[in-house]
Amino acid sequence: MNNRRRLTGFVVSNKMQKTVVVDVTRTYRHRLYKKVLTDHTRFQAHDELDCQVGDQVRIVESRPISRHKRWVVEEILRSEASARGVDELEEVE
Length: 93
Fold this sequence. Notes:
The chain is mainly beta. It has helices at about 80-85, 85-90; strands at about 5-15, 20-30, 35-45, 55-60, 70-80.
């Protein structure tokens, strides 16, 4: 592996061509007050794997691809269709 940062998040939008918006959640403890806080960051990532909304993906840092894209979808960890199960998909069709 290389030294590039890798983050895990959920796809919240795939309405662009070859671009998805990934929401990465970070949980940390406040230094002074010790309260557990949750922070959300949205990244635009290059998508060659055809991700769907709700998929859990791993994104990796890359060179600048466009004005806002500095991340690439490396792997789909869990697909939304597989998370719901095959039975629900058959009922929908």
